[in-house]
Amino acid sequence: MENPYNVGLDRNPANFQPLTPLGFLARNAANYPDAIAIIHGNIRVNYQTFYDRSRQLASQLANLGLGRGDTVSALLANTPAMLECHYGVPMAGAVLHSVNTRLEAATIAYQLAHAQAKVLIVDREFLSVAQAALAVADVSPLVIVYHDSEWTELSSVDTDDHYQDYDEFVAQGDRAFSWLMPEDEWDAISINYTSGTTGNPKGVVCHHRGAYLLALGNVFTADMPKYSTYLWTLPMFHCNGWCFPWTLSAICGTHVCLRQVRKEPIWLALHKHKVTHLCGAPIVMDIILSAENQTLTNKVAFFTAAAPPPERTLAQMQEAGFEVTHLYGLAEVYGPAVVNEWHQEWNLLPIEEQAKLKARQGVKYLPLENLDVLDPETMSAVPADGKTLGEVMFQGNVVMKGYFKNPTATQSAFEGGWFHSGDLAVKHPDGYIQLKDRSKDIIISGGENISSIEIEDVLYKHPAVAVTAVVSCPDEKWGEVPFAFVECCEGKTVSEQELKTWCGQHMAGFKVPKHFSFTPIPRTPTGKIQKFQLREQVSARLQSEESGSPKS
């Protein structure tokens, strides 16, 4: 029998519209046009101007012939231009590709070509690396250069007339442009590239629906009231800034842009603008705490991801007036999709016990349907005993569409109807999950994902290196750093400094191993490197150093 509640009750434009976060900005411009949306140095941008400039950008992209399915790449710092790109690009129907500003030219070139970028909007600070990337890329996008008033360093980079000026480009646009809603909320809004463990990075495609839902999920998770003030210590290129570029418009909040994460401008902004929320890796907390004699006059919520911060750091942040919450997620789930929700009674526990609880990744975000730790072979849930390892898996509307032009990787990631994170964890009796290892061999350093295999590939190209293996090493400042084990070719030697220099010439600086060990590398009888033994060696070395014993 047909369901009577489906008879004559079909979807139509009056009762069904695709979800998109773009409407948040339009709503604020209509209802709160004079509210301050963006603060950047001495610049103040209200919501009407923010909306107008986003539409102008969209209209100019449309005038270039860009539309649905086209890609606009942005190599930008945390600036007003980057916020405008998060609205203006999808308002033209195009897809935003936010490029990690710390990457080397070769990787940027691959991403531009793979994403088929039609336009590249680049900050003049990064124009040199962009030019190097374009010299070897298989695409030739139109280059538009953003001249940020807060970037005052002299540059010898060629910025002659063959580059469009961003502000001039936007100014020529139509502020009354009828921007495009997505035809379907499943339409792509962004593509972000992961640090894959093998081969080239994968392009994570996110849709309007997921961006809308995670943006609202941030409001609930971060307990953000209307008119909250958010300080941009998290890179906007990282998972689209965890969707906070869209979140702030949902609550008519204020973006405080921060071009460089330094202690003086952070504290100046915290005091001057009465910041209420900020996000970042544990390294950002260390930068904040490195300032002497600084305390807050108002409570500030700090959301951190990656490796759990040390107990000492948590205690110092609390003393300075910050409320720290631990999050977990991946680019494939739009950024944070798991939160260590804090129970009030936990405040009565000793600080050591609180630190242990804060180290856990937690429970699912409100817009995430299912989160569990499963046995990847049987796809059954592991016992909630805090001991049994399984793989963290996700289901829901804030899971990516898939990997761009990579059906094999997409099918593998969604096997069994779950998104396989590749992260190994346990589930505690109260349902909170806690990461224990990463099956992808990804090292998270300062909030950035580093592929151990990428480092190994570079080391193997050195003429003195016969065998190498890279594992993560705990680091108080960065959370984790790469630790490289090396066996030299017979009759050849190489120093640690020589290998660091070599790596620095072939990859981004943050990927260069911080430690090296020249020692035989353990293998199985079939020749497979046993990385678990190397991790044990790293752990033993750290324990030896802490006890004051000589290094082994």
Automatic annotation (TrEMBL):
Belongs to the ATP-dependent AMP-binding enzyme family. PROSITE patterns: AMP_BINDING. InterPro entries: AMP-bd_C, AMP-bd_C_sf, AMP-binding_CS, AMP-dep_synth/lig_dom, ANL_N_sf. SUPFAM superfamilies: Acetyl-CoA synthetase-like. Residues 454-528 form the AMP-binding enzyme C-terminal domain. Signal peptide: none annotated. Keywords: Fatty acid metabolism, Ligase, Lipid metabolism. GO terms for molecular function: ligase activity. It comes from the Bacteria. GO terms for biological process: fatty acid metabolic process. This is Fatty-acyl-CoA synthase. Residues 26-404 form the AMP-dependent synthetase/ligase domain.
